[in-house]
């Protein structure tokens, strides 16, 4: 009997030891896997701030391409033009994609920010003039109200657009910092109302006409190529860019990121999805 009890005790002890050892090894393996995944995320993760349309749609549409490059891209949507740069500068974002170079230049000068830089250019969103009241530029009546964006770079861009439309004449059309004070001729005595760019699409129907950034127009279901009464030319200097902090410029993950955004896959996505409302502008 004692021999039987002793044998059973040995079997039980061996079983417990085996189970305990397997559990310990499993835990260790899982821990190593978690550490590896965490390291992978740290090396390859990019948190990017975007305007939902078209920037966010472009990033989401290229998700498979980013994954092929080993990148884990997380999108954070913004509905304004201020926070994406502030949060990038503060380190809460790794990159942003919503603005053009004249706006970035104006922003960093105004805010005294010195560590933001251009990673690369992706597309142009032709700015356009919209009106519920008039079907063409020629129909715009004397004294009509024209709404334009109130930030310096987009305000100047709107005035250049209005000159191209034949409504005003600027002292120097090449001045990307023009304001209403730089209007040399205003034959129709148009009245200008400046307001936040995101808000214009909400109220433009109450004015004679309004200049609207295409990301906000598209976001509200407007097609710049069909619904506007005048649209910016394709050789616009206002290509939208990806911004990063200067110290990150040489990191491999950002090089891979902009390669995807400047790829044939990106070109195809932009052309097929937006049909001329957004135009590829790689390296512009």
TrEMBL record:
A lipid is attached at residue 19 (S-diacylglycerol cysteine). It comes from the Bacteria. Keywords: Lipoprotein, Membrane, Palmitate, Signal. CDD domains: PBP2_lipoprotein_Tp32. Residues 1-18 form the signal peptide. One of its GO terms (cellular component) is membrane. It is found in: Membrane. InterPro entries: Lipoprotein_NlpA. The keyword Lipoprotein applies. It is a lipid-anchor. Belongs to the nlpA lipoprotein family. This is Lipoprotein.
